[in-house]
Amino acid sequence: MDLVTAPPLSPTDRSTVRRHRDRQRADRAELHAVLDEALVAHVGRVVDGEPVVLPTLHARIGETLYLHGSSGAASLRGDEPVCVTVTIIDGLVYARRWFTQSANYRSAVVRGHARRVADPDEALAAMRALVRQVAPGQDDHADPPSRKEMAATSIVALDLTEASVKARTGPPGDGDAVAAGDGRWAGVVGLEMRVTGVTTCPALPEDTPVPPHVPRHGDRTS
Question: Taking a C-beta distance cutoff of 8 angstroms, is the pair 57, 68 a contact?
Answer without folding.
Answer: yes
